[in-house]
Specification:
It contains 22 helices and 27 strands. By secondary structure, the chain is an alpha+beta fold. It is globular and about 85 Å long.
């Protein structure tokens, strides 16, 4: 605990309660967004002087920065489901927007031209329009329910770019260094699973320095239901080395294939979404952030494998946070890093090349071309590394390979992206290994802990304040596993040691599944890495006297374990029966088996009570992207039902063409005027938890 400031009085704010007085006034400079004047003379003068765009475009650039940002979203999920969702968007949502457009203000909705397979869409409607205009309440309900289910992700347009240019493959070991709130992490997971493999060999490590924001990150990642992600909590610039085990029992440092550095920044590229930045903006913001941005990028370079790729990005327009950081890193790397030209990888994206010349300004807008010109009073905040390369060396850095996205080009926010490839050894250890031609060695027992920490942290060993519940992985011959394996006829190929619980003793309530890579990561690094969350819920305890197995299959992890489950608990269900089950999806109102089709009755005739898997298949026109839906169900004594959350129920009914009117609540009308509508989640499967015991 640090020293208190002079004049500090403990519990001073609450002293009025003891004296019977009114509480002291609290200062609050915040204003409603509608009242914010979107003007800042320093901002305009600064970027006009920096020549961030052509002079004839500058007025358009500033006027666009003052407008609200349009809404965008991405379609996610398997290829079959994504294709069906795309047809729904094209057929129903566009019609909805056109029919309910304000007179004289037509609503445009279109796929982003540079995003693959038309899976990202932009609406010429602001978030406020969608929330506050009654005509769009169905659109609002659609976005909320599908986002909660995980079928779409609401994400700013420019934020979608970094994961795409990272070039993720299913076998890659990926680190997201500053991951919260998690939209890019979710996109990385989608790319990792893009081959259709439910448990790819690669994984994503999502890190954030803020413990509370880590739980926002967990919520985002949980929507994707991937066993290949771990959320950790560390300062990115001081992230400990990560180790993995080898077949002989020794360990070696993980060489990461891909690293995303979406670093903390001044955020002036988000003024359209966060207009309060207009009031706060000053040139000093970038000067204060340059150092931490460089340290995060340097740590990423240390952790990256040779041949690996880093994407450095900010939502800032300022070259001090962008090209100056890249130039400083390239100069420090001395040939071990190079900028990659990705200008042709996203056809249809409009952007400006990176700047190779800029000025550095004090907070008073005193501009300097080099450090020698800087006034003595500014030399503690303006540093030599912030200046551009000189004319003789400028060409070798290829800073024009960076990508600058300005808001007036395609009606987006502003953004900066640079892609770096590691082409040679950077750390002292890498250089030593290359010189000696030896592989990485196991750390000695004496220096084992120090070896796992970055160089600048080794003498100040951190003691974590927070303690998460333990990660207890199954061992061979785990007591509860034999019943689960037998009941669901699970294949011998399934590795039960990738299952875990969050308690050492007592009944296991939830059982989670990780990939083999994540399991090894957790076991090998628990002493030095603070893991916040990992694993997808696979089985849930459901004690029932009529059930031979005490665990039912959870929808969260169903896709990951489905290939290993035998046919004995699988039921193919036609569309009419599935709609019936979804429409009557409560324990009190479960359809009787006798009311379902003869096909289903025959399949469940000899099926004992308990958890089962309901399978619906819809053929596609091309026979390549058939839509197959797997749902956790329950075979009762004489009834059959689905285990789905309300959002999942709405999503499935929407896909199948069922009636969702009772879920389409018009919040602008009193509840009595929505007689059919319901927000109840009674009897449905619980929403994904945060690995509760």
């Amino acid at each position: 605990m640090g020293r208190r400031k002079p004049g500090f009085r403990k519990n001073h704010y609450f002293s009025h309660q003891r004296k019977g007085k009114s509480p002291p006034p609290q200062s609050d400079d915040r204003k409603p967004y509608n009242d914010i004047v979107r003007e800042n003379e320093k901002f305009v003068e600064y970027y006009k002087t920096q020549n961030v765009c052509d002079p004839e475009e500058f007025d358009d650039f500033i006027s666009t920065m003052k407008k609200d940002l349009p809404s965008t979203f991405r379609i996610t999920g398997s290829k079959g489901v994504a294709k069906k969702m795309l047809s729904l968007v094209e057929r129903e949502l566009i019609t909805e927007c056109i029919q309910n457009a304000t007179p004289g203000k037509p609503t445009n909705m279109f796929p982003l031209p540079w995003y693959p397979d038309k899976l990202a869409w932009q609406l010429e409607l602001t978030r406020k329009d969608i929330r506050s205009v009654e005509a769009y309440y169905k659109l609002h309900n659609f976005l909320i329910s599908e986002t909660e289910h995980g079928t779409i992700s609401r994400q700013e347009t420019v934020s979608m770019i970094p994961p795409l240019v990272l070039d993720v493959q299913p076998h890659h070991k990926i680190l997201d260094m500053c991951a919260a709130p998690g939209s890019k992490t979710a996109q990385l997971l989608e790319l990792l699973h893009s081959s259709g493999d439910p448990i790819p060999s690669g994984y994503v490590i999502a890190n954030d320095v803020d413990n509370k924001r880590c739980y926002m990150l967990v919520h985002q990642a949980k929507r994707l239901n991937s066993p290949c992600v771990a959320v950790i909590n560390h300062d990115s610039a001081l992230l400990p080395n990560i180790f993995e085990s080898l077949p002989d029992g020794s360990t070696q440092q993980v060489q990461l294939d891909r690293i995303l550095c979406d670093v903390p920044c001044s955020g002036d590229g988000t003024m359209r979404k966060n207009p309060d930045i207009w009031m706060k903006w000053t040139p000093a913001n970038a000067l204060n952030l340059h150092g931490i941005q460089y340290r995060i990028l340097r740590r990423a370079t240390e952790l990256l494998a040779q041949g690996g790729r880093i994407v450095y990005s900010t939502c800032s327009i300022n070259p001090i946070e962008n090209e100056a950081v890249i130039h400083r890193m390239l100069a420090k790397a001395n040939g071990s890093l190079e900028l990659v030209d990705v200008s042709g990888s996203l056809p249809g994206l409009k952007f400006k090349p990176g700047m190779d010349n800029w000025l550095v300004s004090s907070r008073n807008l005193e501009f300097y071309k080099n450090f020698e010109e800087v006034d003595e009073k500014w030399r503690t905040t303006i540093r030599p590394q912030m200046f551009p390369p000189d004319s003789e060396t400028r060409a070798k850095f290829n800073l024009n390979r960076c990508i600058r996205i300005l808001p007036h080009q395609q009606n987006t926010g502003a953004f900066f992206v640079a892609v770096l490839r590691k082409v040679g050894p950077f750390t002292t250890k890498e250089k030593r290994n290359e010189t000696d031609n030896v592989g990485p060695e196991k750390p000695s027992s004496k220096g084992d802990f120090d070896e796992r920490l970055p160089q600048n942290q080794r003498k100040r060993r951190r003691k974590d304040v927070y303690r998460e519940d333990p990660y207890v992985f199954f061992k061979e011959g785990e007591e509860v596993w034999s019943d689960i394996k037998s009941f669901y006829d699970i294949s011998e190929k399934f590795d039960e040691q990738c299952l875990l619980t969050r308690c050492h003793e007592g009944k296991k309530k939830n059982i989670y599944l990780t990939s083999a890579g994540i399991r090894d990561l957790v076991i090998t690094n628990q002493s030095t890495i603070k893991f916040i969350n990992t694993g997808v819920k696979a089985f849930v305890r459901c004690d029932n006297k009529n059930m031979k197995c005490a665990f039912r299959v959870a929808n969260d992890g169903l896709e990951s374990i489905y290939p290993y489950i035998g046919n004995c608990r699988k039921v193919s269900i036609p569309i009419d029966d599935l709609i019936t089950l979804l429409t009557n999806n409560t324990p009190q109102n479960s359809p009787a088996i006798a009311s379902l089709s003869e096909n289903v009755q025959q399949q469940v005739k000899d099926l004992g009570p308990g958890s089962c898997i309901l399978i619906y298949t819809e053929k596609s026109d091309d026979d390549q992207n058939d839509m197959q839906i797997h749902i956790s169900g329950w075979r009762g004594t004489s009834s059959l039902r689905c285990y789905t959350t309300q959002h999942s129920t709405v999503h499935l009914l929407r896909l199948l063409g069922g009636d969702i009117s009772k879920y389409d609540v018009n919040k602008f009308k009193p509840l009595e005027e929505n007689p059919e509508a319901t927000t109840s989640n009674e009897g449905h499967d619980q929403a994904p938890d945060l690995n509760g015991a």
